[in-house]
Amino acid sequence: MNSSTISEASTALVLGGGGSLGNAWVIGVVAGLAEAGLDVTGADLVVGTSAGSTAAAQLAGTSPAQLLADILAAAPAPGRSGPGPMHPGRSHLETTDGIIASARNAEDMRRAMGAWALGFDAASDPDAQAGWRDTVGSRFSPHTWPSTRLLITAVDADTGEPVVFDSESGVELVDAVAASCAGGFAYGIGERRYLDGGYRSNAENADLASGSDRVLVLSPFGGRTRLPLGWRLDLDTQVEDLRAHGARVETIFPDSVAVAVFGDNMMDLSKRPAAARAGYEQGRALAPGLIEFWVGSNDGNSVELT
Fold first, then answer.
1. Burial class (CB in 10 A: 0-12, 13-18, 19+), 107
2. What confidence tens digit (pLDDT) does each residue in 271-305 have?
3. Catalytic center at which residues (predicted)?
């Protein structure tokens, strides 16, 4: 499926990327909302990108309360957990920042990012590919696509073309999520290789909720973008476009407590319980103000919630 997919759903839940801590925060927010009386897991459409694609798959098969409990009960895991096999030398962020800075436009950036990802040894190593698939698959169950509509974003590393997987794409859910989360190397599905869905447009890809009446966006990165604003791929621009087409939009960004927990390493597994708790408290606090939005009339307003 290509990036022009349009949803006819009345409610859409957009789960943005943000590493291990972003995933925990998203789960916490959804659990907090549910605890306070607002279950958003019944959205007509769910869009998942990178860590948000993992959260979407997790929420499709397990209650948010159970997912939260699992995070809080997990044994302490100090240190970092990268998104997969990584290049030695320059850091992932330094390298990708350089690619973005050198790109003429988004298409050029995606092609260059794909070429870089294909240079990883893991892109052609069957054991590394299988290991990444197993790692991703261990995070959620069942591995079947849900009956409700779920869109998982990625980028074709061979062509630079944006990609959106769904239940009709002929791709297993585990593979779709593994592709969307492949931030450090290209993940193979059949004859094609894919990389992180955050490079499609941004960490949220909220444009895929076009056609929905009400859109709730959970953004672990707080709507920030690394791409030039002139490319008009940022979340603010996408929200403006959704509103212009009649959607009512709410965005939930991490509050000061969550931001302090995140620090400068969104991959620090030791902080997952704290990130989930911060999200949970945010969700509980925000739920009363969101209930009317989620089930009420469409007045075209957009509010940023922190």
1. middle
2. 999 999 999 999 999 999 999 999 874 444 434 45
3. 50 (nucleophile), 196 (proton acceptor)
User: Is 35 within 8 Å of 237 (Cβ atoms)?
Assistant: no
Catalytic residue among 7, 50, 53, 201: 50
Backbone angles phi, psi at 15, to 5 degrees: -110, 110
Domain boundaries of the chain, sorted by first residue: 11-75+86-295
Q: What is the mean pLDDT of residues 114-118?
A: 95
In the annotation, is 108 catalytic? no
- pTM here is 0.91
Amino acid of residue 203: A
Q: What angle do CA 28, 283, 268 make, to 5 degrees?
A: 30
Neighbours of 113 (CB within 10 A): 22
25 vs 17: CA distance, rounded Å: 11
Identified catalytic residue from 53, 156, 180, 196: 196
Give the domain 11-75+86-295 fold.
Cytosolic phospholipase A2 catalytic domain (3.40.1090)
Active site residue 196: yes
